[in-house]
Each structure stands twice: as structure tokens, then as C-alpha cells.
Amino acid sequence: VGTYNTSEFRKGLKVQIDGEPFLMIECNFVKPGKGNALYKCRLRNLVRNTVLDRTYKGGDTLESADVEEVEVQYLYRQGDKFVFMDNQSFEQHELTAEQVDDSWMYLKDGMVCSATLYNGMPIALAPPNHVELKVEYCEPGAKGNTATNVTKPVKVETGGEFQCPAFIQQGDIIRIDTRTGEYVERVRG
Amino acid sequence: MLVLRHRLLQQVRAFFDQRGFLEVCTPLLSQETFADRYLEPFRVEASPSPGAKSPPRYLQTSPELAMKRIVAAGATAIYQVTQAFRMEERGAFHNPEFTILEWYCTDHNYETGRTFLIEFLGAMIPGIRSRREVTYEELFRDHTGVDPHRGELARLREKCSAFGLKTVEERGDMLDALMATCVEPALDRAELLVIRDFPEHQAALAQMAQIPGSGHRVAQRFEAYFGGMELANGYFELTDGTEFENRHLANCQARIRQGREPFPVPARFAETMHHGYPASVGVALGFDRLVMAVAGVDSIDSVQPFPFENA
User: Fold this and answer.
1) Distance between A98 CA and the closest CA of chain B, angstroms
2) pLDDT, tens digit (0-9, with 9 covering 90-100), for B6-28
3) For residue A3, which of A37, A61, A137, B185 is within the disulfide window of CB 3.0 to 4.6 Å?
4) How far is B200 from chain A (nearest CA, A)?
5) Which of B168, B180, B258 sits opposite A30 (nearest CB)?
6) If you write DSSP's letter for every residue of chain A in order, what string do you get?
7) Which residues of chain A have pLDDT under 50?
């Protein structure tokens, strides 16, 4: 495992603290009263998604975390597990429902996602920024109501539910932004 | 921003000129540098003629030594706005090359030196809502609950590790660390805060004084904070040449322990001190930070035309 010295600290660094991977999301250099240099860092735990504030003194080191992003294809769900295939190595990766989090609402067979591996094990999943989903069920909208500010819940093919404009009908294909979970547009009526 | 810098520079000069200070201009490149534990000067190859071998020179980390030589020669009130250079210092408030305002006055004592600094900052920064003076001990106790001078090392260590600082060992280093993590972030940004009576490890070239009835000594040093930044640093200056050499050597030993280069005793400066140095106050102020405070911006890059990476 490599190490990073404080002089290499910067936003975006992936490091290991107490055996867990962290992403450095902020790093500020301070030097109180001509004293020793200090680096005030904010780190996000890549497994738990919690934020940690830590201060390091000049010359301290952190272990680098063996974290990589790989392209994976969604295969199927088995109980509490979601199974993906690595598009490079064709290895299978299993993620728990907790790791997949809300992303299950976007997962369609064969969908290409990005998985974060830590020491070769998957820890997090990111679906594509936009996904197209077929509407399976919704209440019929009032006729002629094309305003987009009136929304209603819409159930899609994956079982997920999204707030959509009132004019969306059963059988429509809609585009959702997976980063916000918001409706973007109707792709096909 | 260039216009604001220019205007502030004019205001600074007008302020000192009106009060009878002499503006001086000293060399940026010097054969001598005072050893600070944590300041790293730039070393520069310095051949005066082609092919001539000569020892390296240092880009000044502050104009202190040169200006004090002028004070020792008889000047009573001098100031200078110049460039200073400190290696390994880069952040929102730091650029390795920065502009420093420094002044020395033999008419000031520890108390009037502070009053003068407060008057100066009041004249430069319109946004000061309130002013307050505290001792380092009061401020440190208020925010951490620990006595900085006599508090147990174990308690300081415990406080430090709450911020993830596990490798800091010496009292001075722990105090610095807690100042940065625990005290500074909690300061009122609209208040001009002057901190005085620093712990011994932060004496630099300040005189020491006994606190009556307490059994410990403090450095006659003061610092001004505003806008979440340390703006200025003042000292009731050391006058004893032997003590100067001792502090230089102690800092060199500390540097060697840290794996840093020691520096020879600044002989020219030490010589002037041995001939007698007048009681005086010296203050150094980060001019870029003053511009930041007036403009209300949070990054030194906003007030310098070409920050380090683009210089």
C-alpha cells in the first residue's frame, strides 16, 4: 500500500483510515502563529457515506486506499443481493441492498453501471446519470392538463416510484435523473 | 481588486507618513536568516560574477533582521511594504510569495504598541464591529477548558486526539494545533481580537516577562485576528544579543530533530545586537490578508494578480 504525505494532500484523494476507505473532500492548510503547519481535512467514508473531520500536522502520512471504479452490468437480484458482472474481467460482484441503496429503483437487466471496488470488493454503486423507465401504473391525469407543475406518483417497471407531471400515462417511457431522483422528460408516449 | 490593493497601499503609506515614520527599502536576498522552527526560506544560488563560487543566499521570510539593523543604527520609527517568501506554505490564506507590511518604533512599549496596531487596523478596515483584547491564556481556557501554560500534557493530548491529531507530542505543538482546530474556527469574524502574552514556545524574538504571582513566564507578543484570519503579529522586541544567539541555536537544534537544515548564527545581526539594541515594538502584518479583510474575500488568490501556480 502506498502512502500520501501531507504535501500531497488534496481534494479527491482516496485514503485509508482505521481500515476503511475515505475520499478527501476538503483540505485546508493552516499555520497558527508561525507554528507547525497543519492540514484540516474533511473526509467522506466511502462505505458508510459519513463525514469525518480530521487534522494532520505537516509530515504526517495517510495510507492510500486501493479504490477503483469499474464498469459493471446488472444481471439479477437474488433476495437481498444484487448481482453484477464486471465488463472487463467478467467476474461477478455481489452488492447488498444496503450498498445499492436507492439505486435499485433504476436497475434494469443488462444496465451498465459504475461500481466502486475497495481491495477488490464492491462497496458502492452508481447508475448512469439518466435512465429511461417504462411506466407500469399511474392514476389517469385530468384531460388537457399539460402543466408540469402538477405532479403525481408514477410506478415504473422496476417497482420504483417517482413524482411525474400529471400528463404521464401508463406505458409512457420517462427519463429520470438518478443523482436527484427527479423526472426529466417524457421520451415516448 | 487591483484598484483596492492600490488604494490600501496609499492609505498605509499615508498613515505611517503622517505619524513621522520613515519608509525603508531593504534587500530581499540576504546572506543571513534567523532560524525559525517552522519557517522554511528559499535558498538561492548567488554568484556575484560569472563562475564565482559563493555561499547561497536566502530570500527573506520577513524583513525583520535588516530593519532591526537600521533601528540599531539609530532610526526610531521605520516601516516597509515588501515581498516575503516562505517555502511549503500554500493554502487559502497562504501563498509562498506574499506582501508584508512591517514597522518598528522605539517610542512604543508593549502596551502602546498594541494600541497603535488597533488604531491602524481601525483606520484600514471599515467592517470592524467590535474590539476586544484577551490574553492567550484566557482565550485558550475559554475554548478548550485547559490552562495552556500549566495544564497537564495528558489533557492537551486528549483534546488533540479528539480532532484526529495523534502524532503531536510537544506542548507547544499541541497548543498550536488546538488554536487552529478548536479556537480559531470559533472566533467572531466581525470582531477585531488582539491576543497577548503568548506561551514561551511562541516567543520568537519577543521579550519574556514574569506574570506576577504565577510562577510562569509569557512572551510579550501579540496577534490581531479579524475575519477568521491572523492579520498581524507584534513583539516587544528582544534586546539581549546573547539571548538572541541562544534562541537561534535552540531553534536550530529543534530543526535538526525535525530533519530540517540548521542555519549559521546571523553574525551581522548578532553583532549589532551586542552593541546594544533599543527597547522597541515591531509588528509584521500580512498585506494580502488586509486586502482580503477589507474586500471580504476568503482566498488569497482573489487578491494577488498571479498566485504561485500562475506566477
Assistant:
1) 28
2) 999 999 999 999 999 999 999 99
3) A61
4) 12
5) B180
6) --EEEGGG--TT-EEEETTEEEEEEEEEEE-GGG---EEEEEEEETTT--EEEEEEETT-EEEEP-EEEEEEEEEEEETTEEEEEETTT--EEEEEHHHHGGGGGG--TT-EEEEEEETTEEEEEE--SEEEEEEEE-PPPPTT---SSSEEEEEETTS-EEEEETT--TT-EEEEETTTTEEEEEEE-
7) none
